[in-house]
Each structure stands twice: as structure tokens, then as C-alpha cells.
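Design a sequence for this backbone.
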């Protein structure tokens, strides 16, 4: 873990990275996405679910597809889909302690909203630890893994890639950070023999991994 000695900025994806996927928040969000499409486009639930998945695959987020192909206004959509129950996300003392003890800045980079991030971080007990949340509105609704949001993020927050570590649950979202010179950490249960070359480390226990950085 001495390889992290040069890191002074710690960048974290939010969903399924800072909290465990077993919380299943995205199941709730996906359901509300589908319902929103049903109401706005007068589709059946099956048709709306198919369109939601198709837009996610093509554009990186369902929202971007709805904006580009239907001219939908993002604010109403984002408010609606994030009206969920956050009770499954609970206080994580070990994660909180590990984050507090990390030397340097801590930032969240999420495809969700700032309000959604605040709800998650409040429940985790980690909200005040993070300097800032960079959300989907900050990158003009262009999602990862497109390079443009990373470029905006680095410039806005004055982050030097070579002294930053990026934590993410989706391997494809680590490709640009690695190409820019960041240290990359994939969070989640992964077959380490199948890891792509742009992933430097993998962990299925973020709190334990972060605590190990200091050892």
C-alpha cells in the first residue's frame, strides 16, 4: 500500500461504491425511471423498461437518451427518480474512520444528483468528510465513461491526475482516469484474473482497503 504514498486526492463514485450493492438503491431508482417514462411517453411498463435499458446502453444514462431523443427537461426527472427510501444505507463506522484518516482531499464524482449524494452520505455518516460532490449537472448531463466529465471535474477542482486515486464499481469508468494518470481501484466482487489492464487494484471491502492504505 506504500504505492499510495503520492496520493493527495481521493475520488469516489457514489452508488454501489461508497455503499454496498446489497442496499439495492438502484432497483428503486430504476423502477421510478420506468414509471416516469410510462407517464411521459404513454408506454406500457414493459416498453418503458426496454427503452430505459436501451438508452442507458446507447447514451450512458437513461436521462441523456430522454433529453436527446425526446427533449425532456432533466430537473423534473432527476427529482422524481431520486424520491426513494434510503433506509437500507446505514451508518458505517469503519468506512467513516478510514475516510477521515486518509491524508488529503476527498471528493465524490457521481452520475446522480447532489441531493441524492447528500442523502447517501448522511446515512453513511460521512457527509462532512467530503470537500465537494461533483454531480450529473456539473458535467452538463454527459455521463462517465465519456472523457468530457472527467476533464471538467479535474479543471473545476484543480486535481492533478498523477496524485489522485479514483474508486469506482464499473470497470469501464476507470479507463479514462487511468489514461490520465490516476491510480484506479475497482470496488466490488470481481474475478481478479479477468481484470483489465487499466485497473490497478480491486477490493470487495472498501473500508478495509482504505484502512490498509495507512498501514
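Sequence:
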Amino acid at each position: 500500500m506504500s504505492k499510495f504514498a503520492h496520493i493527495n486526492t481521493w475520488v469516489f463514485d457514489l452508488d454501489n461504491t461508497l455503499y454496498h450493492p446489497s442496499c439495492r438503491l438502484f432497483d428503486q431508482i430504476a423502477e421510478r425511471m420506468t414509471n416516469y417514462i410510462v407517464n411521459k411517453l404513454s408506454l406500457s411498463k414493459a416498453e418503458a423498461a426496454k427503452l430505459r435499458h436501451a438508452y442507458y446502453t446507447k447514451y450512458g444514462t437513461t436521462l441523456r437518451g430522454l433529453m436527446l431523443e425526446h427533449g425532456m427537461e432533466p430537473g423534473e426527472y432527476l427529482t422524481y427518480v431520486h424520491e426513494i427510501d434510503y433506509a437500507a444505507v446505514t451508518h458505517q463506522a469503519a468506512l467513516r474512520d478510514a475516510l477521515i484518516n486518509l491524508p488529503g482531499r476527498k471528493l465524490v464524482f457521481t452520475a446522480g444528483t447532489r441531493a441524492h449524494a447528500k442523502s447517501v452520505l448522511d446515512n453513511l455518516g460521512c457527509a462532512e468528510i467530503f470537500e465537494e460532490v461533483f454531480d450529473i449537472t456539473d458535467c452538463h448531463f454527459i455521463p462517465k465513461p465519456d472523457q468530457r466529465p472527467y476533464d471538467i471535474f479535474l479543471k473545476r477542482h484543480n486535481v492533478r491526475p498523477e496524485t489522485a486515486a479514483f474508486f469506482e464499481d464499473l470497470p469501464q469508468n476507470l479507463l479514462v482516469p487511468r489514461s490520465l494518470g490516476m491510480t484506479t481501484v475497482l470496488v466490488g466482487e470481481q474475478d481478479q484474473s479477468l481484470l483489465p489492464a487499466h485497473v490497478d487494484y480491486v477490493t470487495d471491502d472498501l473500508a478495509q482497503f482504505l484502512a490498509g492504505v495507512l498501514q
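The chain is about 45% helix and 10% strand.
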